[in-house]
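Q: My labmate handed me this sequence with no annotations at all. I'd like to see what the chain might look like in three dimensions before we decide whether it's worth expressing. Could you predict it?
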Amino acid sequence: MKPTAATAPHAPPDLAVERVHQVVYDKPEKAPPADTPDSEPLRLPVDVETAEVIAPPMPIEAPSLPGLVASVRAHFPLIQQALASRAVASGETLSAWGAFDHKLEGASTSQPLDFYKNYWHNIGLKRDTYWGGQTFAGYRVGRGQFEPWYLERETNKGGEFKAGIVAPLARDRNIDANRAELWRSQLERGRVEPEIRAVLIGSVRDATVAYWQWVAAAANHRIAEGVLQLGNDRNGYLDRQVELGEKAEIDLIDNQRIIVSRRAKLIDARRKLEQSAVKLSLFFRDDSGAPVVLPVEAANVDYPPTPSPDEWGSVADTATARANRPELEELRLVERQLSVLLRQANNETRPQVDAGLLVAQDVGEPTSSKGDKSEFELEASLTLTVPLERRKALGKARQLRGKLAQLRAKTRFAADKIVAEAQASHAALLAAAERVEETTEGLTLSQQMESAERRLYELGQSTLFNLNLREQQTAEAAAARVEAQTDYFVAQADYAAALGLESAQGFRQ
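A: Here is what I predict for the chain of 509 residues:
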Protein backbone atom coordinates (compact mmCIF):
# COMPACT_ATOMS: atom_id res chain seq x y z
CA MET A 1 0.00 0.00 0.00
CA LYS A 2 1.36 3.46 -0.93
CA PRO A 3 0.53 6.37 1.42
CA THR A 4 -1.38 9.29 -0.02
CA ALA A 5 -0.50 12.93 0.32
CA ALA A 6 -2.90 13.28 3.23
CA THR A 7 -1.26 10.45 5.16
CA ALA A 8 2.26 11.80 4.73
CA PRO A 9 2.08 15.61 4.67
CA HIS A 10 5.80 16.01 5.25
CA ALA A 11 7.03 13.52 2.57
CA PRO A 12 6.05 12.98 -1.05
CA PRO A 13 4.04 9.74 -1.33
CA ASP A 14 6.31 8.29 -4.01
CA LEU A 15 9.30 8.36 -1.64
CA ALA A 16 7.57 6.61 1.23
CA VAL A 17 8.88 3.14 0.50
CA GLU A 18 12.41 4.37 -0.28
CA ARG A 19 12.59 6.39 2.95
CA VAL A 20 11.40 3.61 5.23
CA HIS A 21 14.57 1.59 4.65
CA GLN A 22 16.63 4.57 5.69
CA VAL A 23 14.49 5.21 8.75
CA VAL A 24 14.42 1.61 9.99
CA TYR A 25 17.69 0.05 8.89
CA ASP A 26 20.13 2.69 7.65
CA LYS A 27 20.40 5.07 10.59
CA PRO A 28 23.63 7.05 10.06
CA GLU A 29 26.15 7.05 12.86
CA LYS A 30 27.30 10.30 14.37
CA ALA A 31 30.35 11.70 12.55
CA PRO A 32 33.57 11.95 14.64
CA PRO A 33 34.81 15.39 15.70
CA ALA A 34 37.09 17.13 13.26
CA ASP A 35 40.06 17.11 15.68
CA THR A 36 40.11 13.33 16.27
CA PRO A 37 42.55 11.03 14.51
CA ASP A 38 39.59 9.26 12.88
CA SER A 39 38.79 12.41 10.97
CA GLU A 40 42.07 12.34 9.05
CA PRO A 41 41.63 11.75 5.33
CA LEU A 42 42.38 8.26 4.06
CA ARG A 43 45.76 7.94 2.38
CA LEU A 44 46.52 5.43 -0.34
CA PRO A 45 49.49 3.11 0.18
CA VAL A 46 52.75 3.88 -1.57
CA ASP A 47 52.49 0.84 -3.85
CA VAL A 48 48.94 1.61 -4.94
CA GLU A 49 50.02 1.66 -8.58
CA THR A 50 51.02 -1.99 -8.37
CA ALA A 51 47.93 -3.05 -6.40
CA GLU A 52 45.23 -5.06 -8.12
CA VAL A 53 42.05 -3.10 -8.73
CA ILE A 54 39.04 -5.16 -7.66
CA ALA A 55 35.82 -4.15 -9.35
CA PRO A 56 32.77 -3.92 -7.11
CA PRO A 57 30.36 -6.86 -7.50
CA MET A 58 27.59 -6.38 -9.98
CA PRO A 59 24.19 -6.08 -8.38
CA ILE A 60 22.01 -9.16 -8.68
CA GLU A 61 18.86 -8.48 -10.64
CA ALA A 62 15.62 -10.29 -10.10
CA PRO A 63 14.93 -12.82 -12.85
CA SER A 64 11.93 -12.65 -15.11
CA LEU A 65 9.76 -15.73 -15.21
CA PRO A 66 11.01 -16.73 -18.71
CA GLY A 67 14.59 -16.28 -17.47
CA LEU A 68 13.88 -18.48 -14.47
CA VAL A 69 12.37 -21.18 -16.71
CA ALA A 70 15.47 -21.04 -18.93
CA SER A 71 17.68 -21.42 -15.85
CA VAL A 72 15.69 -24.45 -14.71
CA ARG A 73 15.95 -26.11 -18.11
CA ALA A 74 19.68 -25.50 -18.33
CA HIS A 75 20.90 -26.17 -14.79
CA PHE A 76 18.28 -27.80 -12.53
CA PRO A 77 19.85 -31.05 -11.19
CA LEU A 78 16.66 -33.13 -11.38
CA ILE A 79 16.38 -32.34 -15.09
CA GLN A 80 20.06 -33.19 -15.58
CA GLN A 81 19.40 -36.47 -13.80
CA ALA A 82 16.45 -37.19 -16.08
CA LEU A 83 18.46 -36.33 -19.20
CA ALA A 84 21.14 -38.81 -18.15
CA SER A 85 18.55 -41.58 -18.57
CA ARG A 86 18.98 -41.14 -22.33
CA ALA A 87 22.55 -42.40 -22.01
CA VAL A 88 21.35 -45.31 -19.87
CA ALA A 89 18.72 -46.32 -22.43
CA SER A 90 21.16 -45.86 -25.31
CA GLY A 91 23.64 -48.11 -23.52
CA GLU A 92 20.96 -50.78 -23.08
CA THR A 93 20.22 -50.70 -26.81
CA LEU A 94 23.90 -50.91 -27.72
CA SER A 95 24.28 -53.84 -25.33
CA ALA A 96 21.28 -55.60 -26.91
CA TRP A 97 22.82 -55.19 -30.37
CA GLY A 98 25.86 -57.01 -28.98
CA ALA A 99 23.95 -60.29 -29.15
CA PHE A 100 24.46 -60.12 -32.94
CA ASP A 101 28.20 -59.46 -32.76
CA HIS A 102 30.63 -61.73 -34.57
CA LYS A 103 32.35 -64.15 -32.20
CA LEU A 104 35.86 -65.37 -32.90
CA GLU A 105 36.44 -68.88 -31.59
CA GLY A 106 39.57 -70.98 -31.64
CA ALA A 107 41.10 -74.06 -30.06
CA SER A 108 44.41 -75.90 -30.16
CA THR A 109 45.05 -79.43 -28.93
CA SER A 110 48.39 -81.32 -29.04
CA GLN A 111 49.03 -84.95 -28.09
CA PRO A 112 52.86 -85.35 -28.28
CA LEU A 113 53.30 -88.33 -25.92
CA ASP A 114 51.13 -91.30 -26.82
CA PHE A 115 51.04 -94.18 -29.25
CA TYR A 116 48.96 -91.85 -31.41
CA LYS A 117 50.94 -88.63 -31.66
CA ASN A 118 48.91 -85.82 -33.23
CA TYR A 119 47.67 -82.27 -32.98
CA TRP A 120 44.68 -80.34 -34.33
CA HIS A 121 43.85 -76.63 -34.37
CA ASN A 122 40.77 -74.70 -35.46
CA ILE A 123 39.62 -71.11 -35.70
CA GLY A 124 36.37 -69.62 -36.90
CA LEU A 125 33.71 -66.93 -36.81
CA LYS A 126 30.17 -67.41 -35.55
CA ARG A 127 27.27 -65.00 -35.42
CA ASP A 128 23.62 -65.07 -34.28
CA THR A 129 21.54 -63.55 -37.06
CA TYR A 130 18.73 -60.99 -36.77
CA TRP A 131 16.26 -63.49 -38.26
CA GLY A 132 16.86 -65.99 -35.48
CA GLY A 133 19.38 -68.40 -36.98
CA GLN A 134 23.14 -68.71 -36.84
CA THR A 135 25.93 -68.58 -39.39
CA PHE A 136 29.46 -69.82 -38.98
CA ALA A 137 32.68 -70.24 -40.96
CA GLY A 138 36.07 -71.58 -40.00
CA TYR A 139 39.31 -73.32 -40.78
CA ARG A 140 40.92 -76.34 -39.10
CA VAL A 141 44.00 -78.48 -39.54
CA GLY A 142 44.78 -81.87 -38.02
CA ARG A 143 48.05 -83.78 -38.48
CA GLY A 144 49.76 -86.83 -37.07
CA GLN A 145 48.52 -90.29 -36.24
CA PHE A 146 44.93 -90.33 -34.98
CA GLU A 147 42.99 -93.02 -33.17
CA PRO A 148 40.74 -94.94 -35.56
CA TRP A 149 37.70 -93.61 -33.76
CA TYR A 150 38.90 -89.98 -34.16
CA LEU A 151 39.81 -89.98 -37.85
CA GLU A 152 37.41 -87.06 -38.49
CA ARG A 153 39.98 -84.84 -36.76
CA GLU A 154 42.47 -85.48 -39.54
CA THR A 155 42.60 -83.13 -42.55
CA ASN A 156 44.60 -82.84 -45.73
CA LYS A 157 47.93 -81.08 -45.53
CA GLY A 158 46.39 -77.67 -46.31
CA GLY A 159 43.60 -78.01 -43.74
CA GLU A 160 39.86 -77.75 -44.13
CA PHE A 161 37.61 -74.76 -44.76
CA LYS A 162 33.96 -74.99 -43.74
CA ALA A 163 30.87 -72.81 -43.47
CA GLY A 164 27.33 -73.39 -42.39
CA ILE A 165 23.98 -72.03 -41.41
CA VAL A 166 21.26 -72.98 -38.92
CA ALA A 167 17.72 -71.69 -39.47
CA PRO A 168 14.77 -72.02 -37.03
CA LEU A 169 11.53 -73.38 -38.49
CA ALA A 170 9.16 -73.04 -35.50
CA ARG A 171 10.48 -71.59 -32.28
CA ASP A 172 12.65 -68.43 -32.62
CA ARG A 173 11.52 -67.85 -36.22
CA ASN A 174 9.60 -64.56 -35.73
CA ILE A 175 11.05 -63.60 -32.36
CA ASP A 176 13.74 -64.89 -30.04
CA ALA A 177 15.46 -63.78 -26.85
CA ASN A 178 17.97 -61.60 -28.69
CA ARG A 179 15.39 -59.73 -30.75
CA ALA A 180 13.00 -59.41 -27.81
CA GLU A 181 15.67 -57.72 -25.71
CA LEU A 182 16.67 -55.48 -28.61
CA TRP A 183 13.09 -54.35 -29.29
CA ARG A 184 12.43 -53.82 -25.59
CA SER A 185 15.57 -51.66 -25.25
CA GLN A 186 14.63 -49.64 -28.35
CA LEU A 187 11.22 -48.96 -26.84
CA GLU A 188 12.99 -47.99 -23.62
CA ARG A 189 14.85 -45.27 -25.53
CA GLY A 190 11.47 -43.88 -26.52
CA ARG A 191 10.00 -44.34 -23.03
CA VAL A 192 12.56 -42.11 -21.32
CA GLU A 193 11.53 -39.12 -23.45
CA PRO A 194 8.07 -38.68 -21.86
CA GLU A 195 9.69 -39.37 -18.51
CA ILE A 196 12.10 -36.48 -19.13
CA ARG A 197 9.18 -34.27 -20.20
CA ALA A 198 7.31 -35.14 -17.01
CA VAL A 199 10.31 -34.13 -14.88
CA LEU A 200 10.68 -30.93 -16.90
CA ILE A 201 7.01 -30.02 -16.52
CA GLY A 202 7.07 -30.73 -12.79
CA SER A 203 10.33 -28.84 -12.22
CA VAL A 204 9.15 -25.77 -14.16
CA ARG A 205 5.86 -25.84 -12.26
CA ASP A 206 7.68 -26.02 -8.89
CA ALA A 207 10.03 -23.22 -9.96
CA THR A 208 7.09 -21.06 -11.05
CA VAL A 209 5.34 -21.57 -7.70
CA ALA A 210 8.54 -20.68 -5.83
CA TYR A 211 8.90 -17.57 -8.00
CA TRP A 212 5.39 -16.28 -7.29
CA GLN A 213 5.79 -17.04 -3.60
CA TRP A 214 8.93 -14.90 -3.65
CA VAL A 215 7.05 -12.13 -5.48
CA ALA A 216 4.29 -12.39 -2.86
CA ALA A 217 6.83 -12.14 -0.03
CA ALA A 218 8.34 -9.07 -1.71
CA ALA A 219 4.90 -7.45 -2.05
CA ASN A 220 4.07 -8.16 1.60
CA HIS A 221 7.43 -6.71 2.58
CA ARG A 222 6.60 -3.51 0.71
CA ILE A 223 3.21 -3.38 2.43
CA ALA A 224 4.90 -3.69 5.82
CA GLU A 225 7.33 -0.93 4.84
CA GLY A 226 4.45 1.29 3.73
CA VAL A 227 2.43 1.04 6.94
CA LEU A 228 5.58 1.59 8.99
CA GLN A 229 6.35 4.70 6.97
CA LEU A 230 2.86 6.02 7.74
CA GLY A 231 3.57 5.72 11.44
CA ASN A 232 7.00 7.34 11.14
CA ASP A 233 5.64 10.28 9.13
CA ARG A 234 2.77 10.73 11.55
CA ASN A 235 5.19 10.79 14.50
CA GLY A 236 6.76 14.04 13.31
CA TYR A 237 3.33 15.49 12.62
CA LEU A 238 2.17 14.60 16.16
CA ASP A 239 5.31 16.13 17.69
CA ARG A 240 4.37 19.50 16.30
CA GLN A 241 0.68 19.07 17.11
CA VAL A 242 1.46 18.22 20.74
CA GLU A 243 3.75 21.28 21.01
CA LEU A 244 0.94 23.44 19.64
CA GLY A 245 -1.56 21.84 22.01
CA GLU A 246 -3.66 20.55 19.14
CA LYS A 247 -3.21 16.86 20.09
CA ALA A 248 -2.87 15.04 23.38
CA GLU A 249 0.50 13.59 24.33
CA ILE A 250 -1.13 10.18 24.68
CA ASP A 251 -1.57 10.16 20.89
CA LEU A 252 2.18 10.52 20.46
CA ILE A 253 2.85 7.64 22.85
CA ASP A 254 0.22 5.48 21.17
CA ASN A 255 1.73 6.23 17.77
CA GLN A 256 5.16 5.15 19.03
CA ARG A 257 3.57 1.89 20.18
CA ILE A 258 2.13 1.47 16.70
CA ILE A 259 5.59 2.05 15.16
CA VAL A 260 7.19 -0.59 17.37
CA SER A 261 4.48 -3.10 16.45
CA ARG A 262 4.89 -2.37 12.74
CA ARG A 263 8.66 -2.67 12.97
CA ALA A 264 8.21 -6.17 14.36
CA LYS A 265 5.88 -7.03 11.46
CA LEU A 266 8.40 -5.66 8.97
CA ILE A 267 11.11 -7.86 10.48
CA ASP A 268 8.85 -10.88 10.08
CA ALA A 269 8.05 -9.89 6.49
CA ARG A 270 11.78 -9.57 5.77
CA ARG A 271 12.39 -13.02 7.22
CA LYS A 272 9.74 -14.55 4.98
CA LEU A 273 11.19 -12.74 1.97
CA GLU A 274 14.69 -14.05 2.70
CA GLN A 275 13.36 -17.59 3.19
CA SER A 276 11.44 -17.47 -0.08
CA ALA A 277 14.62 -16.26 -1.84
CA VAL A 278 16.50 -19.29 -0.47
CA LYS A 279 13.76 -21.61 -1.75
CA LEU A 280 13.84 -19.88 -5.13
CA SER A 281 17.62 -20.35 -5.33
CA LEU A 282 17.09 -24.09 -5.83
CA PHE A 283 15.75 -23.19 -9.28
CA PHE A 284 17.48 -19.87 -10.08
CA ARG A 285 21.13 -20.61 -10.85
CA ASP A 286 24.06 -18.86 -12.45
CA ASP A 287 25.93 -19.97 -15.57
CA SER A 288 27.95 -22.49 -13.56
CA GLY A 289 24.82 -24.05 -12.07
CA ALA A 290 25.33 -22.68 -8.55
CA PRO A 291 22.20 -21.49 -6.68
CA VAL A 292 21.71 -17.72 -6.53
CA VAL A 293 20.07 -16.30 -3.40
CA LEU A 294 18.47 -12.98 -4.31
CA PRO A 295 19.03 -10.17 -1.79
CA VAL A 296 16.18 -8.16 -0.35
CA GLU A 297 17.17 -5.21 -2.52
CA ALA A 298 16.45 -7.24 -5.67
CA ALA A 299 12.84 -7.87 -4.64
CA ASN A 300 11.39 -5.16 -6.88
CA VAL A 301 9.21 -7.38 -9.07
CA ASP A 302 5.45 -6.94 -9.15
CA TYR A 303 2.60 -8.96 -10.56
CA PRO A 304 1.66 -8.58 -14.24
CA PRO A 305 -1.95 -7.72 -15.10
CA THR A 306 -4.47 -10.47 -14.41
CA PRO A 307 -6.73 -11.42 -17.32
CA SER A 308 -10.47 -11.61 -16.90
CA PRO A 309 -11.92 -15.03 -15.95
CA ASP A 310 -13.86 -15.04 -19.24
CA GLU A 311 -10.61 -15.38 -21.20
CA TRP A 312 -10.09 -18.90 -19.83
CA GLY A 313 -13.40 -20.28 -21.06
CA SER A 314 -16.05 -22.04 -19.08
CA VAL A 315 -14.64 -25.60 -19.35
CA ALA A 316 -11.17 -27.11 -19.12
CA ASP A 317 -9.30 -28.12 -22.25
CA THR A 318 -9.30 -31.84 -21.44
CA ALA A 319 -8.53 -32.86 -25.04
CA THR A 320 -5.21 -31.02 -24.91
CA ALA A 321 -4.46 -32.62 -21.55
CA ARG A 322 -5.03 -36.14 -22.92
CA ALA A 323 -2.90 -35.41 -25.99
CA ASN A 324 -0.01 -33.66 -24.23
CA ARG A 325 0.44 -35.35 -20.89
CA PRO A 326 3.61 -37.50 -21.01
CA GLU A 327 2.27 -40.05 -18.52
CA LEU A 328 -0.10 -41.59 -21.05
CA GLU A 329 2.60 -41.75 -23.72
CA GLU A 330 4.97 -43.45 -21.27
CA LEU A 331 2.32 -46.01 -20.29
CA ARG A 332 1.64 -46.80 -23.95
CA LEU A 333 5.33 -47.51 -24.51
CA VAL A 334 5.50 -49.69 -21.39
CA GLU A 335 2.54 -51.66 -22.75
CA ARG A 336 4.40 -52.23 -26.01
CA GLN A 337 7.43 -53.45 -24.05
CA LEU A 338 5.30 -55.96 -22.14
CA SER A 339 3.71 -57.08 -25.42
CA VAL A 340 7.15 -57.85 -26.82
CA LEU A 341 8.03 -59.90 -23.74
CA LEU A 342 4.68 -61.74 -23.98
CA ARG A 343 5.41 -62.65 -27.62
CA GLN A 344 8.76 -64.06 -26.54
CA ALA A 345 7.14 -66.05 -23.73
CA ASN A 346 4.63 -67.54 -26.18
CA ASN A 347 7.51 -68.28 -28.54
CA GLU A 348 9.20 -70.38 -25.87
CA THR A 349 6.16 -72.69 -25.69
CA ARG A 350 6.72 -73.87 -29.26
CA PRO A 351 8.87 -76.84 -30.28
CA GLN A 352 12.33 -76.02 -31.49
CA VAL A 353 12.83 -77.27 -35.03
CA ASP A 354 16.11 -76.17 -36.64
CA ALA A 355 17.38 -76.88 -40.14
CA GLY A 356 21.11 -76.85 -40.71
CA LEU A 357 23.38 -76.81 -43.75
CA LEU A 358 27.16 -77.37 -43.67
CA VAL A 359 29.71 -77.25 -46.49
CA ALA A 360 33.40 -78.17 -46.12
CA GLN A 361 36.43 -78.62 -48.36
CA ASP A 362 39.90 -79.91 -47.55
CA VAL A 363 42.84 -78.44 -49.46
CA GLY A 364 46.43 -79.48 -50.00
CA GLU A 365 48.11 -82.86 -50.38
CA PRO A 366 45.88 -85.77 -49.30
CA THR A 367 46.84 -87.43 -46.07
CA SER A 368 45.74 -90.89 -47.15
CA SER A 369 45.83 -92.87 -50.34
CA LYS A 370 42.07 -93.27 -50.27
CA GLY A 371 41.59 -89.51 -50.79
CA ASP A 372 38.57 -89.59 -48.45
CA LYS A 373 39.32 -86.03 -47.25
CA SER A 374 39.54 -84.40 -50.68
CA GLU A 375 35.91 -84.49 -51.77
CA PHE A 376 33.61 -81.50 -51.35
CA GLU A 377 31.38 -82.11 -48.34
CA LEU A 378 27.72 -81.12 -48.04
CA GLU A 379 25.72 -81.94 -44.93
CA ALA A 380 22.06 -81.15 -44.17
CA SER A 381 20.49 -81.65 -40.74
CA LEU A 382 17.20 -81.30 -38.93
CA THR A 383 16.98 -81.16 -35.13
CA LEU A 384 13.91 -81.29 -32.94
CA THR A 385 13.50 -80.27 -29.31
CA VAL A 386 10.03 -80.36 -27.73
CA PRO A 387 9.40 -78.96 -24.22
CA LEU A 388 6.83 -81.27 -22.65
CA GLU A 389 5.41 -79.50 -19.58
CA ARG A 390 6.44 -76.01 -20.77
CA ARG A 391 5.75 -74.68 -17.27
CA LYS A 392 8.47 -72.04 -17.38
CA ALA A 393 7.19 -70.49 -20.60
CA LEU A 394 3.51 -70.81 -19.68
CA GLY A 395 4.11 -69.30 -16.26
CA LYS A 396 6.00 -66.37 -17.76
CA ALA A 397 3.22 -65.78 -20.29
CA ARG A 398 0.58 -65.82 -17.56
CA GLN A 399 2.62 -63.39 -15.49
CA LEU A 400 2.98 -60.96 -18.41
CA ARG A 401 -0.74 -61.12 -19.23
CA GLY A 402 -1.45 -60.17 -15.64
CA LYS A 403 0.98 -57.26 -15.85
CA LEU A 404 -0.67 -56.08 -19.05
CA ALA A 405 -4.08 -56.18 -17.37
CA GLN A 406 -2.68 -54.15 -14.47
CA LEU A 407 -1.12 -51.65 -16.84
CA ARG A 408 -4.32 -51.16 -18.84
CA ALA A 409 -6.27 -50.49 -15.66
CA LYS A 410 -3.55 -48.07 -14.57
CA THR A 411 -3.74 -46.31 -17.93
CA ARG A 412 -7.51 -45.89 -17.65
CA PHE A 413 -7.14 -44.40 -14.18
CA ALA A 414 -4.30 -42.15 -15.33
CA ALA A 415 -6.48 -40.81 -18.16
CA ASP A 416 -9.35 -40.15 -15.74
CA LYS A 417 -6.96 -38.51 -13.28
CA ILE A 418 -5.52 -36.25 -15.99
CA VAL A 419 -9.02 -35.06 -16.92
CA ALA A 420 -9.83 -34.45 -13.24
CA GLU A 421 -6.60 -32.51 -12.70
CA ALA A 422 -7.28 -30.33 -15.71
CA GLN A 423 -10.84 -29.61 -14.53
CA ALA A 424 -9.77 -28.92 -10.94
CA SER A 425 -6.91 -26.60 -11.93
CA HIS A 426 -9.19 -24.79 -14.39
CA ALA A 427 -11.79 -24.24 -11.65
CA ALA A 428 -9.07 -22.96 -9.31
CA LEU A 429 -7.84 -20.60 -12.03
CA LEU A 430 -11.29 -19.11 -12.59
CA ALA A 431 -11.91 -18.72 -8.87
CA ALA A 432 -8.52 -17.06 -8.35
CA ALA A 433 -9.17 -14.62 -11.21
CA GLU A 434 -12.50 -13.66 -9.66
CA ARG A 435 -10.83 -13.23 -6.26
CA VAL A 436 -8.28 -10.87 -7.79
CA GLU A 437 -11.11 -8.67 -9.08
CA GLU A 438 -12.91 -8.71 -5.73
CA THR A 439 -9.81 -8.06 -3.62
CA THR A 440 -8.76 -5.25 -5.95
CA GLU A 441 -12.12 -3.57 -5.42
CA GLY A 442 -11.84 -4.21 -1.69
CA LEU A 443 -8.42 -2.56 -1.58
CA THR A 444 -9.74 0.51 -3.41
CA LEU A 445 -12.61 0.86 -0.93
CA SER A 446 -10.25 0.40 2.04
CA GLN A 447 -7.95 3.13 0.72
CA GLN A 448 -10.91 5.48 0.33
CA MET A 449 -12.05 4.80 3.90
CA GLU A 450 -8.51 5.30 5.18
CA SER A 451 -8.20 8.66 3.42
CA ALA A 452 -11.56 9.80 4.80
CA GLU A 453 -10.61 8.71 8.32
CA ARG A 454 -7.30 10.55 8.08
CA ARG A 455 -9.03 13.78 7.12
CA LEU A 456 -11.40 13.41 10.07
CA TYR A 457 -8.46 12.81 12.40
CA GLU A 458 -6.60 15.88 11.20
CA LEU A 459 -9.79 17.90 11.78
CA GLY A 460 -10.06 16.51 15.31
CA GLN A 461 -13.24 14.54 14.56
CA SER A 462 -11.71 11.05 14.91
CA THR A 463 -9.18 9.24 17.08
CA LEU A 464 -5.80 7.69 16.45
CA PHE A 465 -7.33 4.32 17.32
CA ASN A 466 -9.80 4.61 14.45
CA LEU A 467 -7.13 5.81 12.04
CA ASN A 468 -4.80 2.94 12.99
CA LEU A 469 -7.69 0.53 12.49
CA ARG A 470 -8.32 1.91 8.98
CA GLU A 471 -4.61 1.63 8.11
CA GLN A 472 -4.55 -1.96 9.27
CA GLN A 473 -7.66 -2.73 7.24
CA THR A 474 -6.00 -1.27 4.15
CA ALA A 475 -2.86 -3.32 4.79
CA GLU A 476 -4.96 -6.47 5.24
CA ALA A 477 -6.85 -5.70 2.03
CA ALA A 478 -3.54 -5.25 0.20
CA ALA A 479 -2.25 -8.54 1.63
CA ALA A 480 -5.47 -10.28 0.59
CA ARG A 481 -5.00 -8.98 -2.95
CA VAL A 482 -1.41 -10.25 -2.95
CA GLU A 483 -2.64 -13.66 -1.80
CA ALA A 484 -5.30 -13.71 -4.54
CA GLN A 485 -2.75 -12.72 -7.20
CA THR A 486 -0.36 -15.41 -5.99
CA ASP A 487 -3.11 -18.01 -6.05
CA TYR A 488 -4.01 -16.94 -9.58
CA PHE A 489 -0.52 -17.32 -11.03
CA VAL A 490 0.08 -20.56 -9.10
CA ALA A 491 -3.23 -21.87 -10.48
CA GLN A 492 -2.08 -20.82 -13.95
CA ALA A 493 1.10 -22.87 -13.48
CA ASP A 494 -0.95 -25.82 -12.23
CA TYR A 495 -3.28 -25.58 -15.22
CA ALA A 496 -0.34 -25.47 -17.63
CA ALA A 497 1.14 -28.59 -15.99
CA ALA A 498 -2.27 -30.31 -16.08
CA LEU A 499 -2.46 -29.67 -19.83
CA GLY A 500 1.04 -31.06 -20.36
CA LEU A 501 2.59 -27.68 -21.26
CA GLU A 502 6.18 -27.14 -20.20
CA SER A 503 5.32 -23.72 -18.73
CA ALA A 504 2.51 -21.18 -18.51
CA GLN A 505 4.22 -19.36 -21.40
CA GLY A 506 2.53 -21.92 -23.64
CA PHE A 507 -0.83 -20.19 -23.12
CA ARG A 508 -1.97 -17.80 -25.83
CA GLN A 509 -4.10 -15.14 -24.26
